[in-house]
Amino acid sequence: MASTGIHDRVLNEQETEVLLSLLNAALTARVRVSGRTSDSSGSDSGVRLTLSDSDRSTIVRTTRGRLHLDRLSLDVSEVARR
Question: 13 — alpha (psi -120 to 50), left (phi > 0) or beta?
Fold first, then answer.
């Protein structure tokens, strides 16, 4: 998923599960400070997901349908393995 990206394609079931798991970790880690939230991230299976506040929404297409992330940008990258 990190090497092929999440935009302009439909995520398969396994990729969707990883994405949802990472979103859960990232959204749980977000801390509200003075009405703003800090960027947050989660990583699993060699993939890092970073959520940031945005003026636009992100839409990710999955085999289950479209996932709308209101006013959030989503960056997916590979995590270097040790």
Answer: alpha
